Amino acid sequence: MTGRLIAIGDIHGCRDALRSLITAIGPRKDDTIVTLGDYVDRGPDSRGVIDLLIDLAGKCKLVPLLGNHEEMMLRVLRGEQPHQAWLQFGGVETLESYGFNGDLDFLPPEHVKFFESLVDYHAEEDVFFTHAAYDPSLPLDQQPGDALRWQTLRDGIPPPHISGAMAVVGHTADLDGEVLDAGHLICIDTFCYGGGYLTALDVRNRAVWQVTQDGHLR
Asked: 113 lies in which domain range?
């Protein structure tokens, strides 16, 4: 494979950070960029983040994962669960970014298509990507959603996966803005919306880009 394999951590509505990060990366057509989920909630411009990701998909091979925040939002919009939990964990900011007026059918058609394209995981060569974590004893296509999207590394870093592949994950924010490298697992949620950084990792050469919420390169 000639292109780069790059992961981007939890964005959480930080459009300016994502825009600067994409500029720093300089995506090319043969690159694969895996976004690890949690595009919406908490930060100031979830709608703008989705617009940027849709545009990014035209510049490279974009593989967008489903995060727990997208899962919460979509369940509410489908009438599958009440809205209280989602609003408590950042849904208010998402609704404001879309100019919510009481109609739950607020997503533009191209955004609906984007959310419908989200996948549970991505595996490539000797690495795999999930939003949160994994069950080390189960094949990737048998992983439970709770492990993929909700399991926190604060409860313990899982052992290496049975495949022997390295895991790249997000979800568990490092409040100091630092990448967690456990050897068999790398976590790149570096708390962008809370004062840390938005992080991208070139998986093959371990190059790291980080930007602040307002878009300044670290």
From this structure: 5-211
